[in-house]
Specification:
There is one protein chain. This protein starts with 20 loop residues before the first helix and ends with a helix. The strands form five sheets. The chain has a seven-stranded mixed beta sheet with strand order 4-10-9-8-7-5-6, sandwiched between helices. The protein folds into two domains: 14-52 and 313-421, Aspartate Aminotransferase, domain 1, CATH 3.90.1150; 56-310, Type I PLP-dependent aspartate aminotransferase-like (Major domain) (Aspartate Aminotransferase, domain 2), CATH 3.40.640. The radius of gyration is 22 Å and the shape is globular. By secondary structure, it is α/β, with parallel strands linked by helices. The chain has 14 helices and 17 strands. It has helices spanning 21-25, 53-66, 76-96, 110-125, 144-153, 170-176, 199-208, 228-231, 256-261, 296-311, 314-333, 360-369, 382-387, 404-421; strands at 34-35, 38-39, 41-42, 104-106, 131-135, 156-160, 181-187, 213-216, 235-239, 250-254, 272-275, 280-282, 338-341, 350-355, 372-373, 375-377, 393-397. The longest helix has 21 residues, at 76-96. A hairpin with an 8-residue loop joins strand 13 (338-341) and strand 14. The structure holds ligand 7TS.
């Protein structure tokens, strides 16, 4: 459990976790720079995480030696590019423990993955009077597509409320599930609050009613060990750029029987079997959902990022991050005038806070002068801000390369903010 009460600062070592953070930091060249004359303290990982040298090198190797279009060529380079691209798909399969790599569709990121499910599944299977359940802590990427669908179809969006700690009220979820429910779409981890949602339980309850579940894994894929078969979710979307890979990479996983029933997302090259002016037949999985030339270099980079994650001890990385969040929560919440937004029992990676009488944007600006990168705003989760009646929050979000010293620097800088505005 993350401590949330104002407690006297205690020096507790990060115990029993053998994590050589200084060694790990050497893998990430971005981290060693100075910003505004101060060492960079990068605490905006929920927006985009940094990229290790091995991923950068893999991207360079592709561009220097392999760059070519995939699937269509018999020539040497095209075959090498195809092998690398499809190799990345198999790495993704193992990373999330999907049954079959054809269930892993490459997309630009979580947003595109959710939109793919909205178009492919929603537009085919949701009709007038049907309902889609989301929660009060969703990122706009998991709200707006469903609203667009509801508007088009005359369906209704139902929202699971959250309590003052930022946890789902599961009794309300039970009350919302009914025979009109066509899909549940839920964040695995909230980007604004850090809450880890009980996706496995949510899925089990939905499946009792025969309802499929999409888990938005944008924040969980980088910070948890994810097993889609264990979760038993029907769809799982995530972005590469939040898990140490380049932008433009990402995946939506879907159970094969559902993906096969769905309509394609976009039409074009590579997603067809035959085309005549009268009729087009579609390719099998995964190509049916990957029209046009994909982000080949980025997805190969995602494969390299997964290799990197496999090369460090993933369980230790998760435990270290958890301990760092606990330390940060204790330290930051003990500063007079600071309030943490999001105090769920199960949290990961994200610390959202406000400072009495200071706008979060001013916090962000002053912290930047100290070389500290945090995000200030609504974090594309405006309904969360409305729920907690705040215009915005400042958000520090951690990765396994962040240190306790960086948390201390953040705490000192927040104290400075309070001084400036007092
Ligand atoms: N879902 C969640 C839970 C997210 O945190 C984000 C991005 C998305 C979906 C969309 O991901 P994208 O890669 O397709 O843009 N979250 C954030 C954030 O917290 N700050 O910047 C982007």
């Amino acid at each position: 459990m993350i401590a949330t009460e104002k407690t006297v600062e205690q020096e507790q070592p990060i115990s029993n976790i053998e994590w050589d953070v200084e060694r790990v930091r050497e893998d990430f060249p971005v981290l060693s720079q100075t910003v505004n004359g101060k060492p960079l303290v990068y605490l905006d990982n929920a927006a985009s995480s940094q990229v290790p040298q091995v991923v950068i090198d893999r991207g360079s190797k592709y561009l220097q030696e392999e760059h070519s279009n995939i699937h269509r060529g018999v020539h040497y380079l095209s075959q090498r590019a195809t092998t690398a691209y499809e190799g990345a798909r198999e790495k993704v399969r193992r990373f999330i423990n999907a049954r079959d790599s054809r269930e892993c569709i490459f997309v630009r990121g979580a947003t595109e993955g959710i939109n793919l499910v909205m178009h492919g599944y929603g537009r085919k299977f949701v009709g007038e009077g049907d309902e889609i359940i989301i929660s009060a802590m969703e990122h706009h990427a998991n709200i707006v597509p469903w609203q667009m669908l509801c508007e088009e179809k005359g369906a209704h969006l139902r929202v699971i409320p959250i309590n003052d700690a930022g946890e789902l009220i599961l009794d309300e979820y039970d009350a919302l599930l009914n025979e009109r429910t066509k899909l549940v779409a839920i964040a695995h981890i909230s980007n604004a609050l850090g809450t880890v949602n009980p996706v496995k339980e949510i899925v089990a309850r939905a499946h009792k009613m025969g309802v499929p579940v999409l888990a938005d894994g944008a924040q969980s894929a980088p910070h948890m060990v994810v097993d889609v078969q264990d979760l038993d979710c029907d769809f799982f979307a995530f972005s590469g750029h939040k898990m140490f890979a380049p932008t433009g990479s990402g995946v939506v996983y879907g159970k094969r029987e559902l993906l096969e029933k769905m309509n394609p997302f976009q039409g074009g090259g590579d997603m067809i079997r035959t085309v005549t002016f009268e009729k087009t037949t579609y390719a099998g999985l995964p190509n049916k959902f990957e029209a046009g030339t994909p982000a080949i270099a980025s997805q190969i980079g995602l494969g390299a990022a997964i290799d990197y994650l496999n090369s460090i001890n993933r369980e230790q990385a998760v435990a270290y991050e958890h301990e760092l969040l606990r330390y940060a929560t204790e330290k930051i919440s003990s500063i007079e005038g600071v309030r943490i937004i999001g105090t769920a029992r199960e949290k990961a990676s994200v610390l959202s806070f406000i400072v009495e009488d200071v706008h979060p944007h001013d916090i962000g600006t002053i912290l930047d002068q100290e070389g500290i990168a945090v995000r200030a705003g609504h974090h594309c989760a405006q309904p969360v801000m409305q729920r907690f009646q705040v215009p915005a929050t400042a958000r520090a979000s951690f990765a396994f390369y962040n240190t306790r010293e960086e948390v201390d620097t953040l705490a000192r800088a927040i104290e400075k903010v309070i001084e400036v505005f007092s």
